[in-house]
Amino acid sequence: MLLTISTTHRPATDLGFLLVKNPVRAQSFELSFGKAHVLYPEASEERCTAALLLDIDPVGLVRGRSPGADGPLDQYVNDRPYVASSFLSVALAQVFGSALNGKSRDRPELAGLALPMEASISALPARGGEPLLRRLFEPLGYAVEVERLPLDERFPDWGASDLYRLRLAATCTVADLLAHLYVLIPVLDADKHYYFGPDEVEKLLRRGEGWLASHPEKNLITLRYLKRRQLIRSALAQLVEPGDEGEDDEDESADRARRERRESLHELRLGAALAVLKGCGAARVLDLGCGEGKLTVLLAKEPQFREIVGMDVAYRSLEVAQRRVERLAAAQRQRVRLFQGSLTYADARLAGYDAAAVVEVIEHMDEGRLGAFERVLFERARPGTVAITTPNAEYNIRFETLEQGRFRHRDHRFEWTRAQLAAWAAGVAERHGYSVSILPVGPEDAEVGAPSQMAVFTRA
Hints:
By secondary structure, the chain is an alpha/beta fold. It has helices at about 15-20, 60, 70-75, 85-95, 95-100, 130-135, 175-190, 200-205, 220-225, 230-240, 250-280, 295-300, 315-325, 330-335, 370-380, 420-430, and strands spanning about 1-5, 25-30, 35-45, 50-55, 115-125, 145-150, 160-170, 285-290, 305-310, 335-340, 355-360, 385-390, 435-440, 450-460.
């Protein structure tokens, strides 16, 4: 079972830092079903290729266990060592775990960059053939090459097999490439070769973050990835995007009401940030963590703002933002610039702006990274006004469908009470020469306050 990952980024050997595997030596890793070997067939400044080779032990997999329904020979004589399967997904998570999580210990700035990437799987089962392979990967931005493999190259008359050689090419982050493979290989495989538990839903949602909810084959992917009806229903319920229609008529009204509340609250946050930036008289503004560009577009429609910059770490979100910007009038488009970047690394491009908005972003950071965010924004960039919105954790008890102790979004790392935001904001203001005000966002509840809250910093 062979997977290769290549890049022509300069220097291409940066791939070793992204995968956290040294190109100058081969490495082997013990897995529960055999061994994984990582080596680099080519490693130059112009092109670098990493190969993940799985050596599966079919005898060891079943030793001491009861044979399957197909009989004992099927457990020992099969194509598992040679054909990509869910074992490959397990190996990706264990061998390239840091890369899959978007981390690079030695070159952290590389992890969020979209690079020219290629991937090749030597033999892949595909229930649905080439059309399905294209339906799964092309919506994610990949150029797809598919070759159906013969049953036996020595005997052409035997015809074609059910296996395919797959080649993918795209400009994306390594984390995105690995996440797509992690989810979609089991979808193409006839079986998942490990235990199904409730955490399978969480794995699917975590690795599908940012792309699965909007994928045109979302239902098929979920159905094939998860084998149990209860898990499938749970996953699909959490993958509802604004604009999706529920399948059950009796749930449609409730789903629509929840979507409308979410959209209404988000519009209130955007409106609050827009009001602050307009009110301070800013002409050059930053939309940090701009996501899909909704606030960026609102800013572009205001003649007051001569220059608008949107920055986000997620390349695919920026692609959506770019499409939104392209629909603006020419005079509005010319004032907008989008680029990729992280709010936890110093970036000279952020200096010299009048104001910045950071809408529902900080709660997606690990709390340990807030110090880096603070230095990037308030010590280095130092805009005159900063508006930061974040959920009010006290209001969570007013959401009937939110379990006690759970965050509003699965990617939230924390959610603060009003007192916690006020304490953090006061410390930031004192350390960097700003004054700060805390404002409610949304209708206020007498007991728990507004659903969101905003800290407005003004440089002294």
